[in-house]
Amino acid sequence: MGRRVLALTCCAAAVSAIVSAAAPSAIAADGPAFLDARELPPQAGTAWHAGPVTSGTPDPLPFCVGGALPGATSQHRAFRTDVDADAVQVTVVERDETHARSLAALLNAAVKGCAERAEQQDPDVTAEWRDYGRVDAEDGASVQGVRTAHAWTGNDVHLFAVGRDGRTVTVVHWGRMGTFKDAPVNPFKKTTRTAVDKLYRG
To answer: What's the longest Cα–Cα distance across the chain?
Structure first.
């Protein structure tokens, strides 16, 4: 993903900046558990570093899904590597399962329409979406991918997971420079299962 994604679209996540600048807010002790750095897809030549679990949505908002996230009820954790891979997890506890199902559907739709929106926002961008299918975890999860390309900055590839357990919804965004062949789909599905299994039932 890297800094090139910010040049590509205004809503891409500057995750390394979030990790260094965000101060942890008060998080309820019985809130949903988040991924640990070691539970993300391995990145050759570097380790993942996790930021604190913080109330609210990341600033700037995550690529593709940021506009669908409710700020008041979100918590997030940002991850970075020493190279070009970044990730962020955002978790929302809704008032009931009906609202949680609606939010999960909204997030999945936001990812599915992301490539088209990116091309509309910048005529120098080309983008492509892929559906990587369902993941068997609690009340369900799905994985999608988006590749973006800019004439001057090359390719970036993103993976998104949206999952739900009861009234709790989580979305994980992973990204780096590269194309779909550089996306660790199977390890990311394992990350997705872990993220959803760590949620609690409200």
So the answer is: 47
Domain ranges of the chain: 4-25+41-197
DSSP secondary structure, 155-197, as one string: EEEEEEEEEEETTEEEEEEEEEES-GGG--HHHHHHHHHHHHH
- Residue 56 corresponds to which tokens in the numbers above? 């609210």
Q: Which residues contact 29 (CB under 8 A, 6 or more apart)?
A: none
Residue 30's pLDDT is 61
Tell which residue, 138, 135, 127, 139, has the closest CA to residue 175.
Answer: 127
The angle subtended at Cα 30 by Cα 25 and Cα 32, nearest 5°, is 80
> CA-CA distance, 135 to 178, in Å (whole number)?
24
CB-based burial label for 181 (10 Å; 0-12, 13-18, 19+): exposed
Write the pLDDT tens digit of every residue in 127-168: 999 999 999 999 999 999 999 999 888 899 999 999 999 999
Give the C-alpha separation, 19 to 88, whole Å: 10
* 8 within 8 A of 2, measured Cβ to Cβ: no
- Just give the CATH number of 4-25+41-197: 3.40.1000
